[in-house]
Amino acid sequence: MIKVEIEIDGELTTYSFPTSWDDITISQYQRLYEIPKREVNDLFYYFDVLHALSKIEHNVLQQMSFDDFKQLTEQLQFVFTPVEDKKLTAIELDGELYYIHTDFNKYTAGEIITIDTLLRQYNHDYIKCMTDLLCVFLRKKINDKIEPFTTDLLNRKELFSKIKIGDINSVFGFFLSGKNSLENNIKDSTNEKSPKKKVSLKES
User: Of the candidates 84, 141, 178, 185, which lies 20 to 30 Å from 47 by C-alpha distance?
Assistant: First the structure.
């Protein structure tokens, strides 16, 4: 993190800004994702980035010295680089461990249907529903076993929004690579039982 003083109405206020993906939470990452993409050298883009990362209003950010602004834009170059995959097996939040549960072939009907419903709600844009999906992917252990899934687990969404994006980026790598098998499970579960009909390739 980097600290910058901004003078507003004659008073100096100190603000902190992230300087790497290690500082970025999921909620901040989602706000970055919402910013329309522009050229790297578009200085107004950095005002949007700074606002997304700090929630400081644009009119306040415009009061900082140009030297501080240039220094921040240099520090913000990390947003144009890939997020590091840490490949953790568990994440600690508020003193409790949440284990990464991404064995998609063993997902229950409730887990698969919940994932499908969430993706449909967000037009299959998984970044917009990251925290919701993590309520399925991250689970506590009870007697050394992953806790069973219930929709009550979706109440952890706000807690999971505080997770650093680098800590869970690999989870969504697993998700995207296993998405086809999940979709196949969904299709299999929704197909009505009916006599099988032979179809030749010519009919397609």
Answer: 84
State the pTM of this model: 0.78
Q: What is the rounded distance in angstroms from the CA atom of residue 61 to the CA atom of residue 17?
A: 12
Task: Report the pLDDT value the prediction gives residue 196, as an integer from 0 to 100.
Answer: 41
Contact 147, 107 (CB under 8 A): no
* CA dist., res. 133 & res. 112, Å (int): 11
Q: What is the DSSP string of the chain?
A: -EEEEEEETTEEEEEEE--SGGG-BHHHHHHHHHSPP--TT-HHHHHHHHHHHH---HHHHTTS-HHHHHHHHHHGGGGGSPPP----SEEEETTEEEEE---GGG--HHHHHHHHHHHHHTTT-GGGGHHHHHHHHEE-EETTEEPPP-GGGGGGHHHHTTSBHHHHHHHHHHHHHHHHHHHHHHHHHHSPP-------GGG-
